[in-house]
Amino acid sequence: MFEPAAVLDGLNEDQRRAATHQSGPLLVLAGAGTGKTRTLVARAAWLRSQGTQAARILLLTFTRRAADDMLARVMPAGASAAERVCGGTFHAVAHQIIRAHAESFSLPPAFSVIDPSDVTDLMDVLRTEHGLVGTQRRAPRAGVCADIYTRCVNTQATVAEVIAGSYPWCADFDGQLGALMRSYVAHKRRHGLVDFDDLLLLWRAALTDPAAGPVLRGMFDAVLVDEYQDVNAVQADIVRLLRPDGQGLTCVGDDAQAIYAFRGADPAHLRSLADDYPDLEVIRLARNYRSRDAVLRLANAIRPQSPGLELALRAERGTGSPPQLVRCHDEATQAREICARVLEAHESGTDLRDQAVLMRAAQHSSVLEVELSARGIPFVKYGGLRFTEAAHVKDFLAAARVVANPADDIAWFRLLRLHDGIGPVHARRFIEALGLADPGLSDPGEAGRGEAGRGEAGPGLAGPRPLDRWEDAVAAAPARSRPAVAATVGALAGAAALDRTADRATAILAALDGPLRDRYPDAGVRIADLQRLVDAAATRPSLHDALVELALDPPVSASDLAGPPRLDEDFLVLSTIHSAKGLEWPVVHLLHLVDGAIPSDMALTSPAGLAEERRLFYVAVTRARDQLYLYAPLRMHHHRAAADDRHSYGQLTRFLDPAALAECEAVDATPPEPVLPRIGPLAATIDAALDSLFGPT
DNA sequence: GGTAACTGGGTTTTT
DNA sequence: CCCAGTTACC
Which nucleotide is nearest to A124 (CA to C1')? Predict the structure, then answer.
């Protein structure tokens, strides 16, 4: 047990009030860099010093990194199980509960957790059955269908409402889309598939259950929620159901940093906390321990304020120098200017790892990446494509899912298509032959049976086991593919018979060796990648756990799997603004401050979209501790234009209005000197040379 | 005739 | 890397 005094050491007055708040509902409105994590950690420690058992404190976050970070700080080194605070992301905690009680949720123990790309694949298959495929080019694509689905769930809105609000161009298809969503849901049930949204829905459903609800609620005395501005409707419900009267509830957040509306989050849930809990106490943390005053002046100039939750950050770390706005000729100049400033800071003693380059979209750094590589500046990139999105990794995960849950037809589909000569049609026939076929629309008798028994296993979950009859199914493959498919599937069936996770993972990779070598010219590198995946999976208690962990917390790169990075290595960080949330660096370089990038032109169609872009800019600015550089490439490539007019001038981001600009120091980058003078008509010279080789044309 | 493979153009943000 | 359109194969 801790001494309260030690627990509260070094906290300021407001932080201390938040940490020692009694049991009523509490909202800590914590601006960027105001010691939010520290306060939350202190609150958990204080609760324990007051007698609350660690295991009865639940800490909910949005990213695995935030969860790990906080849990590590809450728990003394070498804590026993009883000393352990419960916590994790909403999704991970939901999964733990569901996994532990799969049968109460009417789920087969071998259920698969599918990620958004699997959802898209599945939508693609189902789409053909709902008249969304054909010659009409305007039909919503699989990815859009998946987006509409998840948005319906996360904002608790109907298909019609979501289409009207966010996808007006799909209005002609709302009937088909509604039917598609229903068959998507039915399909998941039949095949033991659980998507990310289901994890939250299942948890919420359990909390509303008259028998299970009180048990789940009673497990915790205190619930601490980080980044509350990023909850969606289902998560807000879960929090309310966990603490119906607000006793023991602490929410920490800042609605000016809400940047996840695109996935259904809504800062309105934070703003309405006071309505949900009339006795809510609001404590503001405004003393900023991160940034210099010069940076905060810009941050305060661009911070959107919402009535009742106003906040202005106050600097605790001295004046500093103003953010520098570097106006660049074009993107290449921007890349050069960034490299120059990165190296300059490096030479004056700032490690590369203490600098970050932040961007709106992962793609915005492509020119810079070339420049960094050319100059030999090492970097790591966060955000954008992840390791688990690489084709060979998906292939491996599909094979592993077939082993873990043989009813997972989406995994089968991908696995089979990895083989030469097998496309969508043969893959589907093979799956039918396994006994996994969906009772399609054409077969109402079958469909009726499926709907009747809710919770009753689908074709692959009860009946004959799909992996037991793979030998017959091979006949469905075209003759020339049969040997390869038989070898792969036979080897996977062998893997399924093994017990230890390590052996299973190794056998799965061995099963894929042939197909991967046939498919990818660089198979050697890819297989080496997968070997690390196998090693990482081997440490998990089961293949299922390894797969869920990879889905919910995908490693950024293969090297991420190899354990903590070596301390002697120094890398510049490149990150999307979204992935940079919650982090800070002494020096921050912010790219592409032009309208169309920040704010993104995709977000300009609605005032809400624009407001979110402004918050994103605010998040980016508040990552900097000492020095902030803003870069605006004002001359951009035009995609379709005459050869001699391929450029146009972009506009500096609208968020840098006169008041904000007054807090910056603007400089113009020198345009590059042309390396070569213009050379005459080269084509004629080349033609003459070629004519001398081949004769005149 | 139906399938699979190839080619070329385009890409917001993520649990 | 993904998708659509097109060509080449069984």
Answer: C3
Does the global pTM surpass 0.85?
A: no
- The C1' atom of C3 and the CA atom of A181 lie apart, in whole Å, by 22
CA distance A407 to A466: 7
Q: Is the CB of residue A215 less than 8 Å from the CB of residue A134?
A: no
Q: Which residue is nearest to nucleotide B13 (CA to C1')?
A: A578
Q: Which nucleotides of B are covered by protein (CB under 7 A)?
A: 2-5, 10-15
Q: Which of residues 430-489 of A touch strand C (CB under 7 A)?
A: 478-480
pLDDT at A455 over 50: no
Q: Which nucleotides of C are covered by protein (CB under 7 A)?
A: 1-5, 10
Instruction: List the single protein residue with the shortest CA to C1' distance from B10.
Output: A639
pLDDT of residue A635: 65
Distance, Å, A425 CA → B4 C1': 10
Distance A425 CA to B5 C1' (A): 14
Could you give the 3-state DSSP secondary structure of residue A536? helix
Q: Provide mean pLDDT across the span A456-485.
A: 67
In angstroms, the CA of A519 and the C1' of B6 are apart by 14
For the segment A38-64, what is each residue's pLDDT rounded down to a tens digit? 899 999 989 988 989 888 999 998 877
pLDDT band, very low/low/confident/very high, at A466 (cuts 50, 70, 90): low
CA distance A48 to A177: 50
Listed residue (A390, A385, A431, A395) closest to A517, CA to CA = A395
Q: For helices A482-496 and A391-404, what crossing angle results, to 10°? A: 60
pLDDT in tens, A392-414: 888 898 899 888 888 888 888 88
Tell me the three-class secondary structure of A603-616, residue by residue.
HCCCHHHHHHHHHH
pLDDT for the residue numbered A111: 87
From residue A37, alpha-carbon distances to A41, A253, A538, A581 in Å are 6, 11, 33, 13
Three-state secondary-structure class, residue A288? strand
Tell me which of A636 and A216 has the higher pLDDT: A216
Check if the beta carbon of residue A584 is closer than 8 Å to that of residue A290: yes
| Bridge pairing between strands A635-637 and A647-649 | antiparallel
Give the SS3 label for residue A441: coil
Give the CA-to-C1' distance from A481 to B10 in angstroms.
33
Mean pLDDT within A295-307: 90
pLDDT: is A241 or A674 the higher one? Answer: A241
**CA pseudo-torsion sign A111, A115, A121, A127:** positive
A141-174 residue pLDDT tens? 888 888 889 989 988 888 888 888 888 777 777 7
Q: Using the CA of A478, which nucleotide's C1' is the nearest one?
A: C10
**Minimum CA–C1' distance nucleotide for A64:** B15
Spatial CA neighbour of A274 closest among A307, A226, A241, A230: A307
Find the nucleotide nearest A141 (Cα to C1′): C3
> In the structure, how far is the CA atom of residue A425 from the C1' atom of nucleotide B1, in angstroms?
14
A117 touches strand C (CB under 7 A): yes
Q: How far apart are CA A103 and CA A384, in angstroms?
A: 37
For A509-557, write each residue's pLDDT tens digit: 999 888 888 888 778 888 888 888 888 888 888 888 888 888 887 776 6
Q: Which of A304-308, A319-323, A648-652, A654-658 has the lowest mean pLDDT?
A: A648-652
Residue A666 bridge partners (DSSP): A325
In whole angstroms, B6 C1' to A626 CA is: 52
Of A76-85, A135-144, A241-250, A360-369, the range with the highest mean pLDDT is: A241-250
Cis amide bond preceding A599, omega within 30: yes
Between vectors from CA A265 to CA A357 and to CA A551, what angle results, nearest 5°?
70
Distance in angstroms, CA of A403 to C1' of C3?
30
Spacing of C-alpha A123 from chain mean position: 20
